[in-house]
Amino acid sequence: xxxxxxxxxxxxxxxxxxxxxxxxxxxxxxxxxxxxxxxxxxxxxxxxxxxxxxxxxxxxxxxxxxxxxxxxxxxxxxxxxxxxxxxxxxxxxxxxxxxxxxxxxxxxxxxxxxxxxxxxxxxxxxxxxxxxxxxxxxxxxxxxxxxxxxxxxxxxxxxxxxxxxxxxxxxxxxxxxxxxxxxxxxxxxxxxxxxxxxxxxxxxxxxxxxxxxxxxxxxxxxxxxxxxxxxxxxxxxx
Length: 238
Known about the structure:
This protein is 14% helix and 42% strand. It has 1 helix and 18 strands. The longest helix is centred in the first third of the chain and has 33 residues, at 4-36. The chain has one helix at residues 4-36; strands at residues 54-58, 62-63, 67-73, 80-87, 92-99, 106-111, 122-128, 133-136, 142-143, 148-152, 155-157, 161-167, 174-181, 186-193, 200-205, 216-222, 227-230, 235-237. Strand 16 and strand 17 (227-230) form a beta hairpin. The strands form 6 sheets. Strands 5-4-7-8 form a 4-stranded antiparallel beta sheet, with no helix packed on it. Strands 14-13-16-17 form a 4-stranded antiparallel beta sheet, with no helix packed on it. It has 2 domains: 54-143, Immunoglobulin-like, CATH 2.60.40; 148-237, Immunoglobulin-like, CATH 2.60.40. With 238 residues, it is mostly beta strands.
């Protein structure tokens, strides 16, 4: 005769086993459902498209105070740009601001600033989008701008006209002309325009405040006084 107690034990073990199996299947189904609801990971969208900017500089060698022409390509269209100049592999100073056209190109002209020293190597930089997209030019050829003037004749009286011939000035800029005592301040009394080669030829009238008892020179200045040239000493007659 089958023991009732043993039967109860067998039934209890069977129920526990079946319950564990059902619990395992439930957990498995839950895990599978949870995984299936997680979206596939998307590739991160680049914060910036890839550009290939290029720059070329013409009218070289350049002179301090002179102009160079810049052509840049490969920038974002209609983007605010800055133009800078700096030493090779170093920081640069912004000297102009402009905007690219619908094709991402830029054509402009900038003046070589007076802090550029010919003894160092310099490059032009065009940059956009907080300077994260930029193009660097080849090394520039920088020459000293050494303007000079000659006055003829060097002997004149107040009210006389003398001829001033100048060379080495920036091209096509306004030049102020004046007269002053040697190693002293001067007064600007006339203006002229340089040619495409930076030359100057103009008649200048000796002002009435020039005192024959002092020594005087004629001065020509451009770019807000950053470029100056002085004549030889004048002989002022009565």
